[in-house]
Amino acid sequence: MTIVTPPNTAQVAKMIDHTLLKPEATAADVEALVAEAVELGTYSVCVSPSMLPVGLPAGSELKVAAVCGFPSGKHSTEIKTAEAAGAVRNGADEIDMVIDIGAAKEGAFDRVEADIAAVRTAAPAPTVLKVIIESAALTDEEIVGACRAAVAAGADFVKTSTGFHPTGGATVHAVELMSRTVRDAGLAVKASGGVRTLKQAQSMIAAGATRLGVSGSRALLSASGPDVASGY
């Protein structure tokens, strides 16, 4: 039997979108976020579109992500496309958009697909498009339908959660289901919402996530002893 060693803290850091989406966030908070992301070695920072452009240190490889239609997903498609296009103009490398969750609950996946496709057109490649489906609010059948809509619309990632919905955030089950649904089409999975410890992060990665949305990155990566030495 092959034993797969869980990723260590440095490897996990490279999968993290270091996130600040609190409505009370200030420019100084974003500046601190960037400094912390560089220090911790995270993949990106993720901020609200109103906080763009983000100043990065010279020579930094840190990516910038911005949310779209966040957190409810109930914005009109026209608003989402304008928001996404504006974010790209202001330096966003990646867009994390929220679907119309009610449309998914109704089984109206053609509407979900059209919404995603419009944002894809407004933020074409090489911009990375992640589609937040709010998995905790959906049944397994609805998760699969939303993921298939994201595939058909040309997205790059499906993402579990906003982290703001009362039903909760990422679960191993949802990540596994999402990964099974999209991996053959070449899409990746981002686990977000409630990922607070290294062990939780490792569990999400083992389930198929290749990106993590984390606001408390320092705490997650500050594990000591066996966690750092072995990845557990």
UniProtKB/TrEMBL annotation:
- Report the subcellular localization: Cytoplasm
* Enzyme Commission no: 4.1.2.4
Q: Which reaction does it catalyse?
A: 2-deoxy-D-ribose 5-phosphate = D-glyceraldehyde 3-phosphate + acetaldehyde
> What's the superkingdom here?
Bacteria
Please provide the record's keywords in A-Z order.
Answer: Cytoplasm, Lyase, Schiff base
Q: Active site located where?
A: 96 (proton donor/acceptor), 159 (schiff-base intermediate with acetaldehyde), 190 (proton donor/acceptor)
Q: Which HAMAP family would you find in this protein's record? A: DeoC_type1
Q: Which family does it belong to?
A: Belongs to the DeoC/FbaB aldolase family. DeoC type 1 subfamily.
Q: So what does this one do?
A: Catalyzes a reversible aldol reaction between acetaldehyde and D-glyceraldehyde 3-phosphate to generate 2-deoxy-D-ribose 5-phosphate.
Q: What is this protein called?
A: Deoxyribose-phosphate aldolase
Originating species = Mycolicibacterium nivoides
